[in-house]
Amino acid sequence: MLLSFDPGKRLSGAALFDRPGGQLQDAALIRGQETGDVASVVWLAMIDALREWIGGREVTWLAVEQMVIRPGMLQAAPALMHLQAVTGGVIGVYGKAGACCALTPEQWKGQMQKRPHHTRILSKLTTRELAVLGGLMDLDSYRAALQLDGDLPEEHNLVDAIGIGMSRAVQYALLGDVEARKTAQQPKTRTSKTSNGMKVIHWKR
Fold it and tell me: Kind of pairing, strands 199-203 and 189-193?
């Protein structure tokens, strides 16, 4: 199976697919059970929670998000270092040479903002995959939240993990799938304007 993982210090998203480019089998919000502030203990608690969820299922491939500290983000650096430590722990447990990739947000989703990107992810899930996800979260409420301003529900971590697993860039990185790479490089949208000047984005399915 492919494990795709969106790291968090105390709350992470994880998803299992039958293979890169395959069908979603399961997903979860992974909650570390440590409430203290000792960094190493908090990181290990997250890894332990992930291992408990995966159980005896075999992880053949791994895709994780890699943290990036950009100019102007120095205040966020300590938090990002926590996330990268968790990512490293997951790679240490489940990563295998040639079957593991760590991609930056731009590499696995391009420049898309979270709300339109999550709308697109949900639109691409099959009926069976939506049933899997619907057993974990209220899809109607989440779709409604995507149309509003403010913070998204914590399930956004879950949808990010699924998005990582669905990414064509991940499929290319793990399998060398040239057609997936071509698709990943193609523009995913086109835009047009209505008669009153409103910009409309058309997603490629």
Answer: antiparallel
State how far the Cα of 64 lies from the Cα of 180, in Å rounded to an integer.
Answer: 18
Q: What's the predicted TM-score (pTM) here?
A: 0.83
| Residues 6+ away with beta carbon under 8 Å from 191 | 199, 200, 201, 202
Contacts of 17 (CB under 8 A, 6+ apart): 1, 2, 4, 23, 24, 25, 165, 166
Q: Which two tokens stand for residue 59?
A: 């992880």
Instruction: Give residues with Cβ within 8 angstroms of 182, minimum separation 6.
Output: none
- How do the domains of the chain map onto residue ranges? 2-203
* The length of the chain, given as a count of residues: 205
186 three-state secondary structure? coil
The pLDDT tens digits for 120-137 are: 999 999 999 999 999 999
> Model confidence over 23-40: pLDDT tens digits?
999 999 999 887 788 989
CATH homologous superfamily of domain 2-203?
Ribonuclease H-like superfamily/Ribonuclease H (3.30.420.10)
